[in-house]
Each structure stands twice: as C-alpha cells, then as structure tokens.
Amino acid sequence: TQALLQRVRAHEGLGAFLAVDEAASLAQARQADERRARGEHTPLLGVPIAHKDVFVTRDFPTTAGSRMLAGYRSPFDATVVARLGGGADGHPGAGAVTLGKLNCDEFAMGSGNDNSAFGPARNPWDPARVPGGSSGGSAAAVAARLVPGATGTDTGGSIRQPAAFCGVTGIKPTYGRCSRYGMVAYASSLDQAGPIARSALDCALLLSAMAGPDPDRDSTSLDRPAEDYTRGLDEPLPGASAGRPLQGLRIGLPTEFFGAGCSADVQAAVRAALAEFERLGATLVDVSLPRTELAIPAYYIIAPAEASSNLGRYDGVRYGHRAAEYTDLLDMYRRSRSEGFGAEVQRRILIGTYVLSHGYYDAYYLKAQQIRRLIAEDFLRAFEQCDLIAGPVAPTVAWAIGDKADDPLSAYLADIYTLPASLAGLPGMSVPAGFGAGGLPVGLQLIGPHLAESRLLHAAHQFQ
Ligand code: GLN
After folding, report:
1. Whose CA is nearest to atom 5 of ligand 1?
2. Can you tell me the distance from the alpha carbon of 220 to that of 130, in angstroms, rounded to the nearest whole number?
3. How far is the C-alpha of 270 from the C-alpha of 397, rounded, in Å?
4. Among residues 66, 74, 111, 134, which one is catalytic?
5. What are the chain's domains?
6. Using alpha carbons only, what angle is made at residue 301 by residues 193 and 78, rounded to the nearest 5 degrees?
7. For position 406, what pLDDT does the model report?
C-alpha cells in the first residue's frame, strides 16, 4: 500500500485519481494485516485496488466526476466496495485495500474521460491522448501500474472501451450480476459494475468477490450464487487437448463489426488476435447482427431518458451543490443544477426529458425500447451458431484529448461496437489484441450469452 501510494503521487500528472487519503488506506491495510495474522489467506487480502468515483465509499469522498457532488461523503459503502474490501452485513469481504477514487466522465457520461469536472485523465501510452471513458481513470491507473486492479462501470462500453484504449483487460458482466447498490446511477436498466485489471485471471479474482445477489438492496441483482471465476481457467475445454485448448469453441464474427466503419489498423490487430484463437483450436464462423447500427440511436434515447429521471434527485435541497444566491425555490433549483452539472450532462437531461415528454414518448422512447428487444433477438439468433462473439471494441485507437470535445455526435458514433451487448444485457470483455496506429493499444471484444462470464474469462485467459 505504501509503495503504490508513492507511485500514485509520482504519477499525479496522469489525472487518474480524484481522491487519495493515505491514513484511510493504511488503516485498511492494517485491518488486512490483522486478518492475515489470524490465519486468513484469501487471494485479495491486503491487495491495493481503487474504485471508479461512482461507487460510494465511507472512507473517501465520492463525486461521480461532477461539481454537483464535490465534497460529498457517503455514510455507507457500495455493495461492490464492501464485498471487495472490509465486508458488510455478514459478508466477510475479500480484504482488498482501497488506494483511492478514480477519475471518470461526469456521471459516467462520455467516452474519453474529458467530461470530468476535475480535468481529464490521460492515456499512459501517450499522455496527449484520452484513456477512454467513462472509466478512464480506472484503465489509466491499471495501465500505469498504479494499482493491479480497479473497479469500473459499463452502461454502454465504459469498462470495455477504456480497457481497450489503455491496453488492459476489462469485463462487463451480465446485467444484474453485480449489485448496483451504492453506484451513482446513470441509466439504471444498463448500468453494470465490473473489474479492470492486467489479465483475465486478475479480472476473475476481482469479479468473484464483486458478483452475487443483493436481494435486500438491489432488486435487479440476479438470484444466482457468487461463483469462483478462477476455476478451470488453466484447463482445456472438455474434449480438447492441452495443445489446442479451445478446440470445439465456435467464435462468431458479426459482419457488421468488420465493415468500413472500422479503421484498417484496428481490423488488422483484431484479425491477428483471431488467428491466434484459431491456433488455440477455436473455429471462426460468420454471423450477423443486422440491427447493430440502430444500437446508437436506441441507446442515446434510452440512456438519457433514464439519466434525466435519475438526476432529478440533485435538486440542491437534500445533498449536492446548492447555489449561494437565489430568489425563490424554482430559482434555487435552476441555479444549483446549472452550476452543478457540466455541459454533456445538461445536454443529456434535455434530450432525456424531451423523449419522455407527452407526445414524444411513443415516437422516441417506446420505439427505442422496441429496437432494444430486436437487438437482443439478433444475439439470440447469432448464438445458435456460436458460443462467443468477437470483434473490435472501438473503431479506432485512442484519440487526442480535445479532439471530440466540440462534436459529441462523433463520440456517440464511436460506441457502435459496445452498445449492442449493453442493450441486450450481455457480458462483454475487452482483451488486449496488439497495437494499431501510433503504436497505441487495440482491444478485442468478446461477447457471451447471459451469464457466460466464465466462458469469456476462460477464452481470454487461454489467449493471454
Ligand atoms: N460512451 C457511452 C456514453 O457516453 C457509454 C458510457 C458508459 O458506459 N458509462 O453514454
């Protein structure tokens, strides 16, 4: 803990951390030492990790990257934080030590970490470039070796895309696999927590502690016991040999993921990774996800709609920023929210309120929900022909900080390959696949059927 705290200080220029508190981290480390002295030897005990700043924590402030929550401190830990750390409610906790809170786009809205109210996080491979978003601080911290693992959240790609841009591994589990209790809400029907780490094995260790039902606190958490995702990672598939451990695995390649929209350097790195999967025994088959393009308009209606409702709670009354001067109650709401929310958040509240309003609900929100169903059906059909789906995570490598700042639409379009799995609630993973333009990392995306996390992690681990 001390060594990494020193490393975090030495790399402050990366902008990966929003909060550190040496005394709080060392107190947690001492507790882990005591558990070890009592004979406990769980794998994460005493391991320093850090949390995306959308997970509420008792020992550190939580801002969600927003001025609205500057200085806010939660009276409790998010379920995921408690399960990875000191535990709560009869759950022992894995004993990991929190090193601090990680930068992110404001309320997890963004793809470059450039929507953070507290300044950008930078890509360790090239500090002039974005680390991806919205979990940019998490991916940058892991890539720069400030922490061996971190939490992230993924609503439309925010674990997979920053992991790809920073050359690290990340997994977004099936919707509902991790509790959302204590996660600052963006779009509740899509938000999902997951780990970012150096390898599939490390992701498996972290996810084993994070996942599992939380029936009293998150009614959408799945009623399925926690599992040990590290089990069998080193074994060949049933019936396969050690030399070709993935024999029998059918990997579907959606034609829509390999079209003109994907840059040539990314395609080349992804194809090379897929050739390696073939050498490991997997078979590549062509599949189709015909509604891929519709994922963008559907997501950018559904997510802002839910966000506009979730963010209604920031009224300057109960918690969060309150304007210093105002004339009456309405003026207080208006000023507090105008001062507290950044431009992208305000844009999405406006879009969301519009698509939910009387007369437009049927034309936009309802249609988007219908498209969402069709996209889920596309996957069901594709999974009749394959066990996993593979493709790029993003159409390009990391772009320069500021490049898409004045053009939100171009950032939305870059989410094309991550949004379909999000809308369908499916688990998705980003695995380092090699390098593209400028020597920057490229991620291979693996998508599985519902609850196929262990299948994804196994394939990724064998590949790594
Ligand atoms: N880039 C997407 C957005 O801006 C996804 C963000 C996320 O997954 N939190 O909404």
Report:
1. 156
2. 33
3. 12
4. 134
5. 2-210 (3.90.1300.10)
6. 20
7. 87
Ligand 1 contact, 192 CB (< 6 A):
no
**CA 319/CA 79 separation, integer angstroms:** 21
**What is the residue type of 374?**
L
Is the CB–ligand 1 distance for residue 190 below 6 Å? no
d(C-alpha 454, C-alpha 457), whole Å: 5
- pLDDT band of residue 449 (cuts 50, 70, 90) is very high
Cis peptide before 134 (omega within 30 of 0): yes
User: Is 353's pLDDT higher than 90?
Assistant: yes
Among 103, 415, 418, 423, the mutation site with the greatest number of ligand 1 atoms within 8 A of its Cβ is 415
- Give the single-character DSSP code of 298: H
The residues, ordered by sequence, that sit 6+ positions from 50 with a Cβ below 8 Å of its Cβ are 17, 98, 99, 100, 101, 102, 138, 141, 146, 147, 150, 151
Mutate to test the pocket of ligand 1, among 55, 111, 189 (most ligand atoms within 8 A of CB): 111
pTM value?
0.98
Per-residue pLDDT of 134-152, as tens digits, reads 999 999 999 999 999 999 9
Active site residue 101: no
Q: Which value does ipTM take for this structure?
A: 0.98
